Amino acid sequence: MTRSRRLLRAVPAIALIALAIPASASAQATRTWVSGVGDDANPCSRTAPCKTFAGAISKTAAGGEINCLDPGGFGGVTITKSLTIKCHYTEGGVLVSGTNAIVINAAATDKVTLRGLDINGIGTGTQTSLVGIKILSAKVVNIVDNEIYRFQSGISIVPSSPDTKVLVARNHIHDNGTGVLNAPANNAISFTAAVVRDNDIVDNTCGIASASGGFVSGVPNTTDCGTVAPGAVNKTTLIHAYHNGIHFNGVGVFSRGNLSTVEIGYNEITNNDNGLKRPDAGVIRTTSPATNVISGNGPSDGTNSTTPLAKRNAKRAR
Question: How far apart are CA 134 and CA 131, in angstroms?
Answer without folding.
Answer: 6
